[in-house]
Fold:
Amino acid sequence: MSRLSSSPYWVVAAAVVCVSTGSILVRMAEAPALTVALYRIGLASAILSPFAWRAGLRAWPALPGRQAAALAGAGVALGLHFGTWIASLSYTTVAASVLLVNTAPLFTLAFARVFLGEGVRPATLLAMTAALLGAVAIAAGDWRGGAASLRGTGLALAGAVTLSLYHVIGRGLRHALPLNAYVLAVWTGATLTLALLALLWGAPLWGFSPRSLLCFLALAMVPTLGGHGLVNIALRLLPAPTVGLFLLGEPVGAGLLAYLLLGETPALPTLAGGALVVAALVAVVVVERP
Structure:
């Protein structure tokens, strides 16, 4: 852990690589959004449980009521994030969906100021502005118009709001629980949230092809256990807005994978916006270096 603490940006960089695969695997799964989300987080929780349940049983009963409620809220926020964002991929391109959900730093900045009292340096705010301008360019390049695009935009933005809530709550609980106990509790809460939504919406829960089942497992292993697990480590090493901003690198990786594997060719504004996002991330690393 001391080695990770001396290079926190490597932790976030590895998280970006892992989460960039998520949208591609969702598309390849060929299943309803709530079903994909439930399998993704449910399998991840099951895989993590043998390594975390003992720590959880020791730590969870000792939580004060307010922190226990925050922990439950983090699970609900994460479940809603997966449900809304994965649904957005049915209505818009990978690049646009991933880009819009990664406007979360705007909401994270506001929530971190209100709930955690955290601020950021002026140079980081400037870099955030540049990154969000890049985000606008990417969205403009992938805009198709019509009701479907509006629905996809709304779902992706809902995913951004709930993702930022999840990040800020995680930052606020960083000293309250061991990391594995925190992650297991939140992922279990997200699983229960998605299971309830799947039942309410009548989403199918079985009868899928071997390819879909493999995609469910890959979603649990790579972007969830790998990506979100590393994000939770990063939130204990860096301010929540900085982590959220760094994750704007995900649209670049996801867009490249969509081009290589799905044949989604990015428009010129998308490429220009991606370059601006990368430049902003480099600036954040330089400015916020410990």
